[in-house]
TrEMBL record:
Entries under NCBIfam families matching the protein: quinone_pig3
Residue ranges constituting the Enoyl reductase (ER) domain according to the UniProt record: 17-329
Keywords assigned: NADP, Oxidoreductase
CDD domains tied to this protein: p53_inducible_oxidoreductase
Lineage, broadest ranks: Bacteria, Pseudomonadati, Pseudomonadota, Gammaproteobacteria, Chromatiales
PANTHER family: QUINONE OXIDOREDUCTASE PIG3, QUINONE OXIDOREDUCTASE PIG3-RELATED
Full protein name: NAD(P)H-quinone oxidoreductase
Stored InterPro entries: ADH-like_C, ADH-like_N, ER, GroES-like_sf, NAD(P)-bd_dom_sf, Quinone_OxRdtase_PIG3
Membrane in keyword set: no
Amino acid sequence: MATIPTMMQAIVVKEPGKDSQLQVEQRAVPQPNAEQLLIKVAAAGINRADLMQRCGLYPPPAGDSDVLGLEAAGIVVAAGPQHKSWLGKAVFGLVPGGGYAEYALMQAGHAMAVPNGYSMAEAGATAEVFLTAYQLLCAIGNVQTGQRVLIHAGASGVGTAAIQLAKALGASVAVTASSDEKLQACRELGADVTLNYQKSTFEQVLAQQWPEGVNLILDPVAGDYISREIPLLALDGKIVVYAMMGGREVPQLDLATLFKRRAQLICTTLRNRSNKYKTNLTQGFNHTFSQALGQRKLQPILQQQFSWLHAEQAHQLMITNATVGKLVLTF
């Protein structure tokens, strides 16, 4: 295999906050420990967590890389003693930061083989959104065949993955989005009910469409959405909140309506979970859905690729909320 350099280029955040800037900086190539792989990065997915981190709102956990990027795809160039079988193979998966760099560390248990026929850009767009959606729907939501699922931000990266997974699990799916174009993309992925929240009040429409109630709501908005969602829930329904795009405070939360439905309000994250949790999640997803992914019955929705040196341009596009699916940096 090619000699691994000692130094690499990486994109780092200068002055985290509203005036943050992205800069290319020389960094030492990280060294894998016994349970890690060193990846020569070919592609890195862009996620809203990256935007939050550069704003100073989502710092990396202690000990993790301060370089942006929570998922990557590339070739394994070094590995711990028990994981040499990965050497030379194309993999994708979660990384503990560091994806926006020429080389990145990945826990061996978080690595998945790039499916045949997938570009590295597609592989780089897959791990974060599909594992998040799998966590929300399966590990936490325990969605069952025939249940009804409401997915907010249906055209987002997580939303497009969640629609596909929910349909594969036999659920009926309703989504909200901000434009008819985004809703059309959701319908093409299998969404049964599509709601433009700019034109209608989603809870009123859905109460008429699904009078039986909703079993599971995937909510990246929070804020006043939560009080609006609770009356939609079926008995034993769940609201799983995984971001706070609409604000961290919930006005006028009436617990009685939750009690009446024996409902659960669950807040969850993925980034700060243990390596063991992420390994179990990755292996569960891979066991259940790797064949469907390889057959493209499930696949990432890749809107646009950018050279990694144009990360700022990609971030500005994500900020507009005009995207469907994923943006990816390629190296």
